[in-house]
Amino acid sequence: MPWAKANSLFTESAVILGISQDNPAVMPPENCRYDVGIVVSEDFTTTDTDIDVAKLPGGKYVVFTIDHTAEAIQKAWGEIFVQLSAQGQQPDVFRPILERYIPTMIDRHLCEICVPV
């Protein structure tokens, strides 16, 4: 997040989002898109043409806190939908699943997977 640091956005209260734009179960891995973002204020603007500002749709999410390791993330992806089903929840396929990071969680090697329902 060099850009966020250079623009004083990467603070102790920063919220970083990883956003999978495609379902790897149906899209070839080489075509999967993944965006990284940081939550900014409503009135934030930038003149940097390499940066897009967008709004994510709101709504209810089920949040899973997991270890931030490749193994734990892979395991979580295999279990999330089973757990949702056991809770009687269905993912909202019209909103993206988010990975959410805050500095205090990053320091403890944790992240959250937020599944829209």
Mean of residue pLDDT? 91
> Which fold does the CATH topology refer to?
Multidrug-efflux Transporter 1 Regulator Bmrr, Chain A
| Helix/strand class | alpha+beta
**Shape call:** globular
Distance between the termini: 29 Å
Secondary-structure element string:
HEEEHEHE
CATH architecture: Alpha-Beta Barrel
Could you say how many structural domains there are in total? 1
Strand fraction equals: 15-25%
Strands in their spatial order, largest beta sheet: 2-1-4-5-3
Biggest sheet details: 5 strands, antiparallel
Annotation field: number of helices: 3
Looking at this structure, what is the CATH superfamily? Regulatory factor, effector binding domain
What does this structure look like?
- This protein is of the alpha+beta class.
- It has a single domain (2-116), classed as Regulatory factor, effector binding domain (Multidrug-efflux Transporter 1 Regulator Bmrr, Chain A), CATH 3.20.80.
- Helix content is 23%, strand content 24%.
- The protein contains three helices and five strands.
- It has helices spanning 2-6, 70-86, 103-107; strands at 16-20, 34-38, 61-67, 98-101, 110-116.
- Strands 2-1-4-5-3 form a five-stranded antiparallel beta sheet.
- The longest helix has 17 residues, at 70-86.
- It is globular and about 45 Å long.
- The two termini are 29 Å apart.
- The model has no long low-confidence stretch (mean pLDDT 91).
